[in-house]
Amino acid sequence: MASQKLAVPCITVINGPLKPGKSVIIRGVVNTNPSRIEINFRHKSGIAFHYNPRFDQNKVVCNTWDGNWGQEEYPAGMPFRAGQPFEVYIYCSDRGFNVSVNGHQVHSYNHRFMQLHDIDVLDVRGDLQVTSVEA
Ligand code: GAL
Question: Which residue segment(s) compose the domain that 56 sits in?
Fold first, then answer.
């Protein structure tokens, strides 16, 4: 069966509010010759969690935008591969976001933006195809 392709950027309103215990799942395929992909948890005036696998730098960058970018975090490990399918599961806890890729918990990011219930949009973009989003 051919896998479905959603338009990229892929903007999904979170079936919210976002709160500890809530999770989202994104399935897709990384493009061949990718530069970057982004998963953004947005609120009206910023990005609470920017999850940014960078193939051009072989690392993952995490950050928060509140009018400016904050300090970048570089969690160890780059679980995405050019041309490969993936499943990303992101769990929101009371401490932060826990990211699992292909069934392995790989990254976490402590909350900086604390008004979790204001985080209402999941924005997936960059060098990938998105096949499904559950949010
Ligand atoms: C910038 C980049 C943004 C974002 C940010 C994260 O350099 O242009 O797209 O990834 O870093 O700190």
Answer: 10-134
Query: What ranges make up the beta strands (E) of the chain?
Result: 10-13, 23-30, 37-43, 46-54, 59-65, 85-92, 96-101, 104-110, 121-126, 128-134
Does residue 100 sit within a domain? Answer: yes
**In a domain? residue 71:** yes
Quick one: average pLDDT of 48-68? 98
* Model pTM above 0.90: yes
CA distance 82 to 53: 11
Q: 125 in ligand 1 pocket by Cβ < 6 Å?
A: no
Closest residue (by CA) to atom 10 of ligand 1? 52
Pocket test for ligand 1, best of 36, 39, 52 (most atoms within 8 A of CB): 52
Q: Is ligand 1 within 6 A of the CB of residue 73?
A: no
Residue 134 has pLDDT above 80, yes or no: yes
Confidence of residue 4 (pLDDT cuts 50, 70, 90): confident
CATH number, domain containing residue 108: 2.60.120.200
Count how many domains the chain has.
1
